[in-house]
Write a structure and sequence with these properties.
The complex is a heterotrimer of chains A (261), B (320) and C (196). With 261 residues, chain A is α/β, with parallel strands linked by helices. Chain A has 3 domains: 3-59, Urease, subunit C, domain 1 (Roll); 62-188, TIM Barrel (Alpha-Beta Barrel); 191-226 and 240-255, no CATH class. Helix content of chain A is 21%, strand content 20%. In chain A, strands 1, 2, 3, 4 and 5 form a 5-stranded mixed beta sheet that branches. A 3-stranded parallel beta sheet of chain A has the order 6-7-8. Chain B folds into 2 domains: 8-132 and 296-309, Aspartate/ornithine carbamoyltransferase (Rossmann fold, 3-Layer(aba) Sandwich), CATH 3.40.50; 134-294, Aspartate/ornithine carbamoyltransferase (Rossmann fold, 3-Layer(aba) Sandwich), CATH 3.40.50.1370. Chain B is globular. In chain B, helix 1 (13-30) packs across helix 5 (134-148). Chain C has one domain (27-90, 97-170): Rossmann fold. In chain C, the strands form 2 sheets. A 5-stranded parallel beta sheet of chain C has the order 3-2-4-5-6, sandwiched between helices. A 3-stranded antiparallel beta sheet of chain C has the order 1-8-7. In chain C, helix 2 links the parallel strand 2 and strand 3. The chains are: A alpha/beta (261), B alpha/beta (320), C alpha/beta (196). Chain B binds chain C through residues 1-2, 10-12, 14-15, 18, 21-22, 24-26, 28-29, 32-34, 36-39, 67, 306-307, 310-313, 319, and chain C through 1-4, 82, 84-86, 90-95, 97-101, 131-132, 134-137.
Amino acid sequence: MTTLLIRGATPFWSGEPTADTTVCGQATDILIRDGLIAETGTLGDVRGVEVLDADGLLLLPGFVDLHAHLRQPGREDAETIASGSAAAAVGGFTAILAMANTTPPTDTAENAEYVLDEGRRVGLVDVQPIGAVTKGLAGQELAELALMARSRARVRVFSDDGHCVHDARVMRRALDYLRPFGGVISQHAQDGDLAGPGACAHEGEWSGRLGLPGWPTPRSRRSSPAMRSWRGIPDPGCTSPTSPPRRASRSSAGPSSGGSP
Amino acid sequence: MTRHLISSADLTRDDVEAILETAASMHDVQRREVKKVPTLRGRTIINFFFEDSTRTRSSFEIAGKWMSADTINLSAKGSSTSKGESLRDSVATINAMAVDALVIRHNQSGACRQVAGWVGASVINAGDGTHEHPTQALLDAYTMRANLGDLTGRHVVIVGDLAHSRVFRSNVLTLATLGARVTVVAPPTLMPAGIAAWSAADGFATSWDLDAVLADDPPDVLMMLRVQRERMSGGYFPTPREYTIGYGLTRPRLAALLAARPEALIMHPGPMNRGLEISAEAADSPNSVILDQVSAGVAVRMAVLYHLLVGEATSGGYAA
Amino acid sequence: MAPSTRPETTDPSLDPSGRTVMGAGDISRALRRIAHEILEHNKGAQDLILLGIPSRGVELAHRLAALIADVEGTEVPVGELDITMHRDDLRHQPTRTPMKTVIPAGGIDGKVVVLVDDVLYSGRTIRAALDALTDLGRPRAVRLAVLVDRGHRELPIRADHVGKNLPTAHSEKVQVRLSGHDGIADVVNIAGGESR
């Protein structure tokens, strides 16, 4: 492995913010040897190393994207593991979790290993497959969760993203079944009965004016009786396009999916 | 005039007045033995209908033909669309044939606006999803003015499935442009999302109670919208009976309306569900101008074609 | 979006630099003569219809009808013939909102139609009027009466009755104003020309 000297970077994680600076910590040199931070502080000349002038730049830890769609296998016209990895690397992400709603879906150990291997072959960032909760993302029978967990891909996050696991009983079984290997479930929190496949806008004045099928939100119909039962749910204060699920409290064992499928 | 007619909001009051005046002249042409003027000779108009339609498509076709344009009808069935071609590719293919106007009916809201960005031809919205149907609003306004004169201050009540109605959306815009007062009535489940903010911003009233509206502020025009029986399975209302009792123009409601406003107009964009949103007595009463609406359709569409396609070629496209 | 423009001839204002070539008296005498000519040519008012071409041709047609009624004691039917939809220059002008076409009861079949317009110039308006007439029926004969013939014909068209022949330059404007239409005294002016 190579040795890299970063000169004058401001690490994001060091020190406390002061009244007259907006960034944390003080500029420092960082020597990286074999992928690990070897030395920090003001370093003198080091011979035979690559030097990166980071004066005035922030040094951040690599980001992890918990919700990426790499579309491979099946929709390589839209995205591939290679193109998604490259985009992630440019954006400062060193690890991405690939959602399972590919064709075929990542619902077996073999499929999970395919994604892992392809990610390694590309070699830009860590590509970690997310496994499907149910076979074929159909929401009915559990996928081979344990085999995926025991595979080389070591799957720990499971999601039917793109589809909501509607059946509370299926969701409960999945959550139970994960306990031996400590997995988490990421729910696609969209109730298809409230926001069907045509939904393409936040429900509200403009979806009404434009005649677009909307995603209901607690705000959009506060006065409507249909939505009154939601009032017990705290206002998320965000503009997530997905509706709060009716069974949210039971299915939120893992981080909820934040983006659209 | 704009090059396209996508939304009723595209039309100023002057535009609407010009179109309606022209439509009146065209209505005269319609009554002649020779129903043809050479105005659009050499122009090509394509009616591209991705959704079934009888009256709108045929009236656009007749309008084009009576103005001597070459009018061609395409429907999604039997076109490349049924072979999986995208809207963009279908439209690009037609655009490459250098047509002058594209009349489009599509089941997706916003499709016409999209198409307008892709072509050199004038695009006319003949109904896009649950968004708008501007020529319907124009022919409705034409029918109202033919019977009532100036619409300033006139009270128009629109009743029915507002949530899924492009006729309502265009009408509310055109009627505001012409200075009419509008009240829209529907059960809460058939009101569009965000109607409270929308109606407040645009200055029209909303109500869940048709009888109260008829009693408190009897309308000059009562427009009943089609209610699709399919909406029942969507749970928008429990039974046709309950809908009719709450929101239909029944015989007693007709009597109440005519007692308060003997000259009130009864309108319906068609096709009607007799017995559901409108009773036979109301549909066939002397106050009904439902067939006038149909007959105005051709004249108004001739006027729209005239104002969009005639005049100095300033807009590029294939004008020559 | 700009409103559709009306024909510019409806603007009642006169170019102040113009000179008057016909006053109210001249116009009145010319119309009276034309009324006599029409009757003489037609051997009476039998089967006559006067069709004015909007907008000022309509007022002229009504005046001629009144003059004919004075002389002959017969009410000659008057109509209006809008030719907007038949113009051949629609592509080269701002869009005009068409005016009314009003055909007297009984139609024009077998009648002697006198087209009435204020100014005869290129002849294209009259060409369009003849086309429009074809769609309305088959007159026995069509004649043309104009208040002013300013020359510069582009088509083989000739007026049967002319109030005044007025040699003009292309660059000049002939402005006709009629009391009923414009709310000012009858006048025919020529403006522009030298400065262009």
